[in-house]
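Re: beginner question about structure tokens

> Can someone show what the tokenized structure looks like for a real chain? I only ever see the sequence side.

Sure, here's an example I had lying around. Input first:
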Amino acid sequence: MKNARQTAILSIIEQYDIETQEELAGKLKELGIVVTQATVSRDIKELRLLKVLSSKGGYKYATADKAEHGLSDRFVRIFVDSVLSISYAGNIIVIKTLSGSANAACEAIDSMRWPEILGTMAGDNTILAIVHDEAEASRVSTRFQEMLK
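And the corresponding structure tokens:
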């Protein structure tokens, strides 16, 4: 019963912008699953659902991976808006940013989780990204450049 209910919850939040536990309980009731608010609350905690900004400006429940996708989109915008230049030497990619923007742009890189990138380090206006070798540095630099277009 619990697994079916939690599967239904995941399906509901995928289809609808659910803002409250009461609204979620109502949707479950429409599916023939009668629950208390306490049960919905426990399910939300067990499923690790988060409240995220919806496209309509309100907040809705989402799974952590959906919430992270929204963050990733914002980080990419920050990256694009703050990067001034990208170059590489050996296996090190050097990314110049607007003053004070390197940490946010670096977080964008880290959130992409590209397996080629071994690690990053940010200063005030410079990011160093380390990859395995010069060939990877060239490919990753090109990918970064494509993001800026």
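Each token stands for a local structural state, so reading them left to right follows the chain. Strands lie at 50-53, 59-62, 83-89, 92-97, 117-122, 126-131.
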